[in-house]
Amino acid sequence: MSEQSGWTGPSSQQRLAILRRTRTVAMLGASPNPARASNFVATYLLASTNYDVYFVNPNATEILNRPVYGSLAELPVVPDLVDVFRRPSDLPQVLDEVLAVGASTLWLQFGLFDVEVAEKAEAAGLVVVMDRCLKIEHARFHGGLHLAGFNTGVISSRRAR
Amino acid sequence: MDRPWGFRTRAIHAGAVPDAATGARAVPIYQSTSFVFEDTEDAASLFALQKYGTIYSRISNPTVAALEERLASLDSGLGAVCTASGQAAEFLTFACLAGAGDQIVAGAGLYGGTITQLDVTLRRFGVDTVFVPGAEPSAVAAAITEQTKLVFAELIANPSGEIADIAALAEVAHSAGVPLAIDATLATPFLCRPIEHGADIVIHSATKFLGGHGTTLGGVVVEAGRFDWGNGRFPLMTAPIPSYGGLTWWGNFQEFGFLTKLRAEQLRDIGPSLSPMAAFLLLQGVETLPLRMAAHVTNARAVAEWLAADPRVSYVRWAGLPDHPHHDRARRYLPLGPGAVFSFGVRGGRAAGRKFIESVHLCSHLANVGDARTLVIHPGSTTHQQLSDTQLRECGVPPDLVRISVGLEDLEDILWDLDLALTSAVKDAR
Q1: Which class does domain A12-147 fall in?
Q2: How much is the ipTM here?
Q3: Could you give the domains of chain B?
Q4: Which residues are B247's β-sheet partners?
Q5: Which of B2, B5, B69 shows the shortest C-beta gap to A152?
Q6: Least CB-packed of A30, A46, A131, B313 within 10 Å?
Q7: B145-159, pLDDT tens digit by residue?
């Protein structure tokens, strides 16, 4: 769907730059259920990145032995990046919450794509990534995807770091 | 800015950035069965697939990973899993998708080892394969049932030289909710990338032109990452997996699910892994693939045209020639030429074919294809010698048929050798 919309997301080098400048991630809609994609992504972010990860879900109290916050506004920090696992119809409200809390990147997971929300977010100064998995993109640039035989698209004569 | 790197650049660079620890520019050979864990938590998350990394070289290895990413890139795929041989790549794919009671629909003109793998070994395990002559799309459509899990064909068949109609097969397979797998061994991604024509899975015996020097066995499965494995026909992709804590290949990994299952389950359980040393040797071959394939096809065209014009030769089955029934398909799918492996007939029947093989001095008589050297074999006096002339014709291998894999020697030297061998074959047959 992203090809047909006319909206162009950040290039791979721009996504890498986002991942490098991000320190704090809020997972909006994180689930305590190990079978859910958000929980699986959370296990990766905790084990394979240096991000300070916070979970947000009004219907959960603990995920992977960590506290869960009821809303973005209740977080003890301002997250750099909000990673969204919510229904498509929730996105306009999600955007309002993200803008209110002062995050700099709105990241919508696989299956979430809304040009109207993206354009509004960008007009307000947010960097927007849609229909991509934060885990996959991190793994693309940090060797994980490569070790699993996937095509990262990375061509470079510089020593890996 | 994302640069769409060219094929030659990717043949040399994809999958291989300089080593983080040492700066080594060539791909290091990580000849190690196992890799130490940082701590027990690290080990636990690796085993639960929560984290990417190396555990044991049966499942993944850094040298093999460089080859995997390179081949995935060249074939326009999402990713790849390498295996110990081309046959292992096919078995892993079939075993990943089909079980007892399931069905595979395959072209009939497959390599003999693939036919027996499907028709004998997998049939013994309860997987039924229907073989469709010429992999004709309408007949393939008619053969698909509720139990069908895969449509499978070879892009360039041997010895018929027939070309699979990839786009039509993809349409037929997809309209039934079934993926299309294409074995493109004789083409290599330099001549054709089936994923760009609609195929979902591409399989190669890397032993052939990818390695290119006749030194190393290997295979690869590349996947496009476009197929909807959640369409209801593939419960193996959507059911919880107890050995991985109840996650599902499709639910947790989405487009990465098939290849993750192929590696984390099929390589784990079946075990035909590519060794790091073999991966290194194949990587050396792949770096010159574009140069070699261009030269192979140039020589093959000249040899095919020379043979076709020779009265001592009864037929030439190379789809690059205008009189081949699949010449148009070859021009569509393989515009640079339909590979460098084909067959021809030596006038004088089985005896002439045998004499031809015994008379070559430069061409090597052996059972491989895709070497830098020119290779020839006469099935009627070797692999198929137990069959009568009638039986040979029935399986599409006439008694006078010689298969040639045109190498990279000087064209004049190849033609000189063929000319002398044809002269002795025809003289003796009279």
Answers
A1: alpha beta
A2: 0.89
A3: 7-286 (3.40.640.10), 289-429 (3.90.1150.10)
A4: B241
A5: B69
A6: A131
A7: 999 999 999 999 988
